[in-house]
């Protein structure tokens, strides 16, 4: 059932061009600049007129939610907050009028997320969901929702479910922005066309980054700690990259917004520290370049994920991973691919139990 792969995690990483495409099937038609999300069709007016969106999730799903926060504010102009389900659950929360709550969960069975969403519902919010498992508890308790349709995910480390969640989030944000008129039609159309290319670009990313990732894995297999840095939409990807590394390789890792480094973590930098920078060509590019210099001048080892053809960072970094070019808003989807693979490769070199890491369960159904 591993389809010839050594581990489910590897199979699930490699499947992503297809699972991402499956997610788009019947929902996105690039030629007509058309996006349809049947599951939330009846709620679209409510979403458009929402005064606030509140996202609730745990773990990797929380990281997808963080990407959603940036997108809903950037493309749709809707104030968006995000909370860990376990925090929301035990806090006195203020749910104001016209708040739409969005729960994100691969399994649909995470105990904290279930209880948090029930709480939001009791407080009168409309509750939407993004789940992978059809008919799961969260899918049933939400007022409406969208399935990721990436198939069963077996590896404890979530990979294809994460990119599936991102696929839905991008379609939601684009659809809301179009309906709301917060995005010019031509820009919308262009983004839909670009987005349609993502499955092919995931495939290219898997192919083009393999050798670099293999070399980097060999170099950092004995590291005792690593730092992942990104900005804007790629800050959640830094968090997700670090989570993947911790879970399956047992190397301590931290994700940070790149500019926060100088507020503390920079003290950790020495010649043994690997720092992974997510550095696409976007509006914070120059800032990231100076963050890289700060690490280099303290002897840190820099691994940089850059846009294909970027020579500036390639000259400064110890290792570079070139990522196919896409619109800056879609870079998170491609950037996470080599980071998943890096964790996988390092875990393999360290002979870890990749599909069943110690102390972890696929779904956390207890508190
Ligand atoms: O099934 P869920 O999406 O609700 O699960 C949430 C987390 O438990 C999950 O993402 C966890 O962090 C993964 N092991 C990450 O790879």
From TrEMBL:
Its EC number is 2.6.1.16. It is found in: Cytoplasm. Its main location: cytoplasm. GO terms for biological process: amino sugar biosynthetic process; carbohydrate metabolic process; fructose 6-phosphate metabolic process; protein N-linked glycosylation; UDP-N-acetylglucosamine metabolic process. The keyword Cytoplasm applies. Residues 43-182, 212-357 form the SIS domain. It catalyses: D-fructose 6-phosphate + L-glutamine = D-glucosamine 6-phosphate + L-glutamate. GO terms for molecular function: carbohydrate derivative binding; glutamine-fructose-6-phosphate transaminase (isomerizing) activity. Transmembrane segments: none annotated. It is an enzyme of class 2 (transferase). The active site is at 362 (for fru-6p isomerization activity). Keywords: Aminotransferase, Cytoplasm, Glutamine amidotransferase, Repeat, Transferase. Homodimer. Catalyzes the first step in hexosamine metabolism, converting fructose-6P into glucosamine-6P using glutamine as a nitrogen source. This is Glutamine--fructose-6-phosphate aminotransferase [isomerizing]. It comes from Acetobacteroides hydrogenigenes. The lineage of its organism: Bacteria, Pseudomonadati, Bacteroidota, Bacteroidia, Bacteroidales. The gene is glmS. The chain holds residues 246 to 612 of 612 of the full protein.
